[in-house]
Amino acid sequence: MKIVVHNHEQSHVAAGWIWDCTKEEFFDGWIEFENGRIVAMGRGSIPPATPLFRGIILPRFINHHTHLGDSIFAETIRATVRTMDLRAVVAPPDGLKHRLLASAGKEEIVKGIVQSLQKMIYNGTGRFIDFREEGIQGIYCMHEALRTPLADAGITISLPSGENARNARETLYGDFTFQDMIFSFIFGRPASLTCTPSEIERILAAADGIGLSAYADWEHGDFFAIAEEAHRRNKLFAVHVSEEFHEPLDEILDAHPDMLVHMIHSTRKEWDVVAESGIPVVCCPQANALFDLRPPIEGMFQAGVNVMLGTDNAMLIDPDILEEVRYTFYHYPLFRKQGKSGFRKCLRMALPSAGKKLVSLEPIEEGKEAHFQVMTLPGRNDYSHPEHILAGSSDGGTGTTSESITIKPVVHGLVRENRIFEIL
Ligand SMILES: [Zn+2]
After folding, report:
1. From CA 9, how far away is CA 12, in angstroms rounded?
2. What is the 3-state secondary structure (H, E, C) of 58-101?
3. Domain contains 354
4. Per the structure, how many domains does the chain have?
5. Ligand 1 centroid vs 86 CA: distance in angstroms?
6. pLDDT value at position 82?
7. Is residue 344 part of a domain?
8. 291 CA from centroid of ligand 1 (Å)
9. Across the 424 residues of the chain, what is the mean pLDDT of every consecutive 10-residue run?
10. 389 in the same domain as 306
11. I want to staple 397 with a disulfide (CB 3.0 to 4.6 A). Which of 9, 133, 206, 388 is the partner?
12. Do 205 and 319 belong to one domain?
């Protein structure tokens, strides 16, 4: 991976299909931006100047659920996972993942996280919500990975030519790290299934919130004490729910979670309750499919639940949220049968949610900060039907499985703060 930094002081134009964050659809147009802010926008295919980037323009994706700490075990796990059940692989305290984590060195875990961060930046992910195991030490591993200089991961940064380049090298990019490129929400959890108030206090001081394993793993009293402490400190609280078997949602909601993960074995009545509450539910259909599990995304979506997508354990599935969008589109007939509009509904599940305290969306509008990304395909000038391109379908979207994907956006013109990064 290589990052090309473009000169940001002058005005630039990007053109193509732009995601309208309000209508949740694409329109053909252009954006003029200067010093990190959108100064003008227009519809139609004739921009006011030659575009620096032409392609599909949309907010950077958010991956709503990852466990990046297990990235380093991908090779070991993927070779055997299809022969094992879910509990044997991921359940604490003795699941394979937890045994591997306990035996791995900190350096190894950090190295794996760095590899996943690199993949996410490359595939257009601007934010991610990670559930870290292993208590406070696990959170420190994530901090260390995020603070790793890009140069240490073998990423070269090509600076703009001109007189400011030397300055830029010394002042801006000398210690450029992963956290300059991607925004993290870290949800920690106690190191074991029993915990003390002081451990919870340390975790909450170092993380954005608490993300517990299955509700059924926890002592009733501990579960509610942890949730209460998270809320008291104005941090977030999330939990895995009904992944392996049904768990009582009404009890779980008494802990006022900010986010629920999975809800595979949930009921229609529960979908209505969650829809009413507005609590987002994160689904990870690709990872679930490895254990012959299928989240009821269609039912929840139709009930009005705020469904979001995540990629779950990096040891099982690469943290590529656009692949998760594609998988959802091709494997859930409700969306696939609606064609482009169905794809947009799936795409929406990988974008930040407007108005939510966790992940508010930066709309692509005049006067707003230029935080969008431009996805382009090498050698391609025609970006009509952006849904087909993003769905990876070269046959006009008639493919029925993700195996039909033959096109993949590989270049991102990323605009962040007041600089422009092109990721190659
Ligand atoms: Zn999970």
Report:
1. 9
2. EECEEEEEEEHHHHHHHHHHHHHHHHCCHHHHHCCCCCHHHHHH
3. no
4. 2
5. 11
6. 78
7. no
8. 14
9. 74 89 93 87 87 87 95 88 85 88 92 95 90 96 96 83 58 75 93 92 97 93 96 96 96 96 97 95 96 96 96 95 93 95 96 66 84 78 81 53 38 61 80
10. no
11. 388
12. yes
Sort 111 into a burial class: Cβ within 10 Å, 0-12 / 13-18 / 19+: middle
Distance from residue 115's CA to the centre of ligand 1 (Å): 19
The pLDDT assigned to 79 comes to 83
CA of 271 to the centre of ligand 1 (A): 20
CA atoms within 13 A on the CB side of 60: 27
Question: The domain containing residue 390 runs over which residues?
Answer: 2-59+361-423
**Token pair of 333 as six digits:** 């007939």
State the pLDDT at residue 228.
97
Q: Are 236 and 374 part of one and the same domain?
A: no
412 and 309 within one domain:
no
**Two structure tokens written together for 378:** 């090498």
Distance 284 CA to ligand 1 centre (A): 8
Nearest to 65 by CA among 316, 408, 405, 335: 316
What is the whole-number distance in angstroms between the Cα of residue 131 and the centre of ligand 1? Answer: 7
Q: Verify that 410 and 297 share a domain, yes or no.
A: no
Whole-number Å distance, alpha carbon 393 to ligand 1 midpoint, is 29
Residues 19 and 122 in one domain: no
Q: What is the pLDDT of residue 408?
A: 41
Domain with 207 in it: what CATH number? 3.20.20.140
| 415 Cα–ligand 1 center, Å | 30
User: 240 CA to middle of ligand 1, Å?
Assistant: 6
Give me ligand 1 centre to Cα 310, in Å: 9
244 CA → ligand 1 middle, Å: 12
Residues 45 and 76 placed together within one structural domain of the fold: no
In the reported structure, the alpha carbon of residue 129 is separated from the centroid of ligand 1 by a whole-number distance in angstroms of 10
Are 188 and 293 members of one domain? yes
Strand pairing of 372-376 and 411-416? antiparallel
Distance 211 CA to ligand 1 centre (A): 9
Task: State in Å: Cα 389 to ligand 1 middle.
Answer: 29
In a domain, 350, yes or no: no
